[in-house]
Design goal:
The complex is a heterotrimer of chains A (258), B (334) and C (352). Chain A is of the alpha/beta class. Chain A is built from ten helices and ten strands. Chain A has a domain of 172 residues: P-loop containing nucleotide triphosphate hydrolases (Rossmann fold, 3-Layer(aba) Sandwich). In chain B, strands 1-2 form a two-stranded antiparallel sheet. Chain B contains eleven helices and two strands. Chain B is flat, with a radius of gyration of 24 Å. Chain B has a single domain, classed as Orthogonal Bundle (MetI-like fold), CATH 1.10.3720.10. Chain C is mainly alpha-helical and 352 residues long. Chain C folds into two domains: 87 residues, no CATH class; 214 residues, MetI-like (MetI-like fold, Orthogonal Bundle), CATH 1.10.3720.10. Chain C is flat, with a radius of gyration of 29 Å. The chains are: A alpha/beta (258), B mainly alpha (334), C mainly alpha (352). Chains B and C meet through α1, α2, α3, α4 and α5 of B and α2, α3, α5, α6 and α7 of C.
């Protein structure tokens, strides 16, 4: 299921403002890649270009190539709606549909794509909730509103919702920044399990988290406020955290930064 | 226009942490504080007294009239309060008011929701703002102007529509047209729809605009089309707001006076067909009959006004209940 | 995955077949032509008919083609889009017509003479005359209503936000809500029954003002409440901590902070009651002559004037009605625009 992402020469704009410039990288299937860097360096923007969510922002546009295996996401005739089916996303703040129950939240993506028998849906919902390590906590309250869960549970519900449609890639935009340490740990464990099945990209502000969960780490930086963000380097996480090849990366990781 | 008060999702504003009913509890009171509290509390009490007075005096005059009424006030088709013996009833008015308001709602609510969606989700961004602004201003156009337009512009243009409805739907009986002037309850319904369209659109637009971006992105990230995003995130979030907007519009339609009085050719009958001229509404009847009414006639009109008052209270109360019941799913807590 | 069978994906699932941009225009053109053709062939005459047939063909046609090429979900999305556009265009027609007709017909007799003369010596069926008496009446009635409503409304709002916690405050909140929904004619009937039928007072501009203030008070309370709630608590506490008494804190800190918003709310409330006709009809009675005293004898008012000219029914009277309507709308729009201007200019720094 998991696919390789190959980005080359990617620029992203907000209106006329160039937010990230000339990014090229390869993201291996069945691995966790972490994006780190100071605020405003464009790592979230870059993440959102990987499932064409960036262009949803008013004024957002992109040029360059993002290959998902052998298909360019920005090629002619590509349907962004279909792209987002293949590349799932989990957001910074948990955002279950407030008007839907736990069950309906997980089934939402499947229901968009056609009719399923109740038993099929039941199967997928259970499997996805188990996959998100949430089944035991919510199996008795599947018909209660999803917004009634705790923050950490809501975030895992969102992960369940994203993996229910079996995407190839799972993007996570600071998925733990709104959570307490215990919930964070639960999600980090979950990421470790999910990488067996999905290509995972995670944006994080938490250096330890990047070190704990990821196989590869990419460091983004910007020259100054108002300048576009750039990819400084991407390498094995171990190497980035022990012996990065660029001085700026070392400064940032060791906290000697701005 | 107090759109803001209709926001269903407005979080309870963090009121200042004032001690309950002020410094009196402390023992030390400054004259300034006492006077100021007295004035502001007095104004609050004045509002209560005013409401009580409205209910009391209307009821008082209404009972004066109803006690002399020889016909059944609720079911009689007569309106002859100055006759000997006086006979009057509100059946025709209740029918006309309800029917014209229903027609207005059936037309206005879907169109208003669509326009609100158009402004927030479909129109090019440069257009959405100005359109919303213009509709905002249209909500302020007084009903007398809508009445003038309805009577002098809309009515002469309705022959075609009436003929067409008669040709294809005349067999239903309720849309049969016998070539009268198109000054019927149906026309009133259309005009009321045009009048309440801006207000429902405005409030709905406000609500749709408040749908948290993250809910829409959640749907988008699952691979939803624009319409599916609206169905999954926007409409469920906005539902209670749209209901309260519609109720606001309904309240206006029920109580609308001048526009109805100018467009309808009233009569104290209930016609089988909505396209035939005739019928009446509470408010229109008061305005049309007031000039020539005797004191007894005025009291009878006040009695009918009291019924209208009660109906609008019920509608507003229902709106509030619906909103309160939907709170659990309103999304305001997310 | 065991349920991978649920999604039988084509080799390249990203490349959804998409209809070209001109597709909608092409279908629209084709349906219009076809609708017109069918109407002509069947001998239908009404514009509504062929437009309706064309609209149905457009929605149905684009759904069918799109469902075939792009799939049902895209087709449904397309249908929703076209319905939203249709609704918008449908609503534009009456609202644009209203604006256009008022301006076009109203501008005919609207001039300096019209604004500065009354109807006193003009027969209703003759051209000439003006709205001076009505303008005067409206300004006085609305002015009086504002004088009553603003103190009551603002003080009530202050009570609710700054003091009110108990049962009284809850009751006031509830009944202000109820008051918002009172139909204007009912407000008129109330003043009629109390002031004229029971107390035996005559018809006057002031009687109308009382009814208008019943309509205005709740609007003022609501908007003022909203504005006071926007004032951050830190400001109040800062002032109280300096030893300033509460009432001076409210007068010197809270109200000045929110004065822009309150003014906006009051002006919008004025704009709302200026156009009210029904209570004026019941309580002020109307006249063709200038009566500068709002406390005695019937007065005229702009909305009332429009109604009287309309019921008169002659062409000259219709012209005057449209001109008065244009004046009234212009007045209300100016109030609205100024109010919004103030709101923007004095926007609370704490904006939500």
């Amino acid at each position: 299921m998991a696919k390789r992402i190959d980005v080359s020469g990617l620029n992203a704009y907000y209106g006329s403002f160039l937010a990230i410039e000339d990014i090229s990288m390869t993201i291996e299937p069945r691995s966790v890649t972490a994006f780190i860097g100071p605020s405003g360096c464009g790592k979230s923007t870059f993440l959102r270009t990987l499932n064409r969510m960036h262009e949803v922002t008013p004024g957002g546009r992109v040029d360059g190539k993002v290959m998902l295996d052998d298909e360019n996401l920005y090629g002619a005739g590509i349907d962004p709606v279909a792209v987002r089916r293949e590349v799932g996303m989990v957001f910074q703040r948990p955002n279950p549909f407030p008007t839907m129950s736990v069950y309906d939240n997980v089934a939402a993506g499947l229901r968009l794509n056609g009719k399923y028998r109740k038993s099929q849906l039941d199967d997928v919902v259970e499997k996805s909730l188990r996959g998100a390590n949430l089944w035991n906590e919510v199996k008795d309250r599947l018909n209660k509103p999803g917004s009634g869960l705790s923050g950490g549970q809501q975030q895992r519900l969102c992960i369940a919702r994203a993996i229910a449609v079996e995407p190839n890639v799972l993007l996570m935009d600071e998925p733990c920044s709104a959570l307490d340490p215990i919930s964070t740990l639960a999600i980090e464990d979950l990421i470790g399990e999910l990488k067996e099945r999905f290509t995972i990209v995670i944006v994080t502000h938490n250096m330890q988290q990047a070190a704990r969960v990821s196989d590869r780490t990419a460091f983004f930086n910007l020259a100054a406020v108002g300048k576009p963000g750039k990819l400084i380097e991407i390498d094995d996480t171990e190497r980035i955290f022990s012996n990065p090849s660029v001085q700026a990366t070392e400064d940032y990781i060791s906290g000697r930064f701005g | 226009m107090d759109i803001t008060t209709q926001k269903p999702a407005a979080p309870p504003a963090p009121g200042p942490a004032a001690p309950p009913d002020a410094p009196a509890a402390r023992g030390v009171t400054r004259p300034g504080d006492r006077i100021f509290l007295g004035l502001s509390r007095g104004s609050g009490i004045f509002v209560l007294v005013l409401m009580a007075a409205i209910a009391a005096f209307l009821t008082y005059r209404a009972t004066l009239a109803i006690s002399k009424d020889e016909a059944n006030f609720f079911t009689s088709f007569e309106w002859n309060p100055s006759g000997v013996p006086p006979e009057f009833g509100i059946a025709v008015l209740a029918f006309g008011t309800v029917v014209s308001s229903i027609i207005a709602m059936v037309i206005a609510v879907p169109v208003a929701v669509a326009i609100a969606l158009f402004i927030t989700h479909y129109a090019p961004r440069r257009l959405g703002g100005p359109i919303g602004y213009v509709i905002d201003l249209l909500a302020a156009v007084p009903s007398i102007v809508y009445g003038l337009w309805g009577a002098l512009v809309l009515v002469p243009h309705l022959d075609g529509l009436y003929g067409w409805l008669d040709d294809y739907l005349g067999w239903t009986g309720i849309l049969e047209w016998n070539d009268g002037a198109p000054r019927s309850l149906f026309t009133v319904g259309i005009l009321l729809a045009v009048m309440i369209l801006p207000i429902i659109t405005n409030v709905s637009r406000e609500v749709f605009r408040q749908v948290p971006r993250m809910h829409e992105e959640a749907a988008l990230a699952l691979g939803a089309t624009r319409w599916e995003v609206i169905r999954m995130s926007v409409l469920p979030f906005g539902r209670s707001g749209v209901i309260s907007a519609s109720m606001l519009g309904l309240g206006r339609a029920l109580g609308e006076t001048m526009a109805v009085a100018m467009v309808l050719s009233p009569s104290f009958t209930i016609n089988a067909s909505l396209l035939d001229p005739g019928g009446g509404t509470f408010a229109q009847n008061i305005a049309s009959k007031f000039n020539e009414a005797t004191e007894m006639g005025r009291d009878a009109l006040i009695a009918s006004g009291l019924v209208l008052f009660v109906i609008t209270l019920l509608v507003n109360g229902a709106a509030r209940l619906i909103i309160a019941r939907r709170k659990e799913y309103s999304g305001a807590n997310a | 995955m065991s349920h991978a069978t649920l999604h039988s994906r084509p080799a390249s699932s990203l490349r959804g077949a998409t209809l070209p941009k001109w597709f909608s225009w092409a279908v629209a053109g084709a349906s219009a032509a076809l609708g017109y053709g069918i109407s002509a062939a069947a001998g239908l005459h009404s514009d509504i008919q062929w437009a309706l047939i064309a609209a149905l063909l457009f929605v149905g046609g684009s759904f069918a083609v799109s469902a075939k090429v792009e799939g049902r979900r895209q087709a449904r999305d397309r249908t929703a889009t076209s319905l939203v556009w249709v609704a918008f265009l449908l609503a534009v027609i009456p609202l644009a017509s209203l604006t256009w007709e008022t301006v076009e017909r109203g501008i005919k007799v609207l001039d300096g003479y019209f604004l500065t003369h009354s109807m006193g010596v003009v027969a209703d069926t003759e051209p000439g005359g003006g709205i001076y008496h009505a303008l005067l009446g409206t300004l006085e009635q609305v002015g009086l209503a504002t004088l009553i409503s603003v103190p009551v409304g603002v003080l009530t709002a202050i009570y609710l936000v700054e003091y009110g916690r108990g049962r009284l405050a809850k009751a006031v909140t509830f009944f202000v809500d109820v008051m918002t929904g009172i139909p204007s004619i009912v407000a008129g009937l109330f003043v009629l029954s109390l002031w004229i039928l029971i107390l035996g007072m005559g018809y006057s501009g002031f009687a109308g003002s009382m009814a208008l203030s019943i309509l205005m008070i709740p609007v003022v309370v609501r908007s003022t409440e909203e504005m006071l709630k926007l004032v951050p608590n830190e400001l109040r506490e800062a002032s109280l901590a300096l030893g300033v008494p509460k009432w001076r804190t409210i007068l010197k800190v809270v109200l000045p902070t929110s004065v822009g918003g309150i003014t906006t709310g009051v002006m919008l409330a004025i704009a709302r009651i200026t156009g009210e006709t029904a209570p004026v009809l019941l309580l002020v009675w109307g006249t063709n002559f200038i009566n500068a005293n709002p406390f005695q004898d019937p007065q005229a008012s702009l909305p009332m004037y429009i109604y009287l000219q309309y019921t008169n029914g002659s062409e000259a009277a219709y012209d005057r009605a449209w001109a008065a309507a244009l004046t009234l709308i212009a007045f209300i729009m100016i109030l609205n625009l100024v109010a919004r201007g103030i709101a923007r200019w004095k926007a609370p720094q704490t904006g939500r």
